[in-house]
Design brief:
alpha/beta, 8-stranded parallel β-sheet, 40% helix
């Protein structure tokens, strides 16, 4: 049995579907029982648990060969670091009591850095917490998500502009599709190892904001130009998306970290995996899935 947290999101969904395709048992860990219907229909068990509730998580993790853990971004929290640490305390307590055979969890590029990483600091804390466990763990340090550009497609279609938090616009950084993250998570859940692993995951190529605009131009059939969002507007931009002030400030620091090349892969003696998905293929799938919105 494999328990999957975040099964309704891009990464967890891919991992769970791949396990189910292999006829392996899956337990969907959900906060909202209403979302369980799809997974019941696919043959998964359902466990209802809040990430702050150690007892509920312990029940969800019992009798499992592995657990996939990812935590929410907490964009609506007034104190994301404190809220996330409460989740980590509940997760660690539940894991120690339920004793699953292994933990696979979603971390991030830059999670080896204690400072200057904004929201990624939550994943530094997760790595440190999970290293205290006496069961095998594997953290996936994923590159910048290709899916981060999905929300800009409609605007690019209408305006011919791609607003970018990446600046300089020709700065190339590693990117990865959430589909490839889910594939790696499912593969790791089927492996056996000892101790604590960190795997750095990127796609086949690095890309800049200009590269993304070029791909969008081709896929949409119109000229699209990348346009840098001024650094002083980062926090206000996130607040306009509905983030709390604290969450917006943390995301602004993430952007500063990427743009200054402070947030990079550690690389030293770590495992590195390359995903299969190219940016043009990922964006093509977004464009086609969003046609109804245009």
């Amino acid at each position: 049995m494999y328990a999957i947290i975040g099964i309704t999101g891009n990464v967890g969904r891919v991992a769970a579907n791949l396990l189910l395709e292999k006829k392996l048992p899956v337990r969907a860990v959900l906060r909202n029982p209403v979302k369980g219907g799809e997974w019941k229909a696919k043959g998964a068990e359902i466990a209802i648990a809040e990430l702050h509730n150690a007892a509920g998580l312990e029940n969800a993790f019992k009798n499992t060969s592995g657990v996939f853990v990812m935590t929410p971004p907490l964009f609506d929290s007034n104190d994301p670091l404190s809220d996330h640490n409460q989740m980590l305390s509940a997760l660690v307590s539940a894991i120690k009591k339920a004793k699953p055979k292994k933990i696979v969890y979603l971390s991030s590029v830059g999670a080896h850095l204690e400072n200057g990483t904004g929201a990624i600091r939550k994943l530094y804390d997760m790595e440190q917490a999970f290293r205290t466990l006496d069961i095998p763990t594997a953290g996936i340090r994923a590159a910048w998500f290709m899916e981060n550009f999905q929300g800009s497609i409609a605007y690019a279609k209408e305006s011919g502009k791609l607003p970018s938090f990446l600046n300089p616009l020709d700065l190339s950084i590693p990117m990865v599709s959430t589909n490839d993250i889910g594939k790696l998570a499912a593969a790791l859940l089927n492996e056996n190892w000892e101790g604590h692993r960190i795997i750095e995951l990127a796609g086949p190529c690095s890309y800049s904001a200009k590269d993304v605009a070029y791909v969008l131009s081709y896929q949409l059939g119109i000229p699209v130009d990348a346009e840098a969002i001024p650094a002083e507007m980062y926090a206000a931009s996130y607040e306009s998306f509905g983030f709390t002030e604290a969450a917006a400030q943390m995301m602004a620091e993430v952007n500063d970290g990427f743009n200054s090349e402070h947030i990079i892969f550690e690389k030293a003696e770590l495992e590195q995996v390359t995903g299969d998905t190219l940016l043009e293929d990922a964006i093509n799938s977004y464009v086609h899935s969003s046609r109804k919105d245009f």
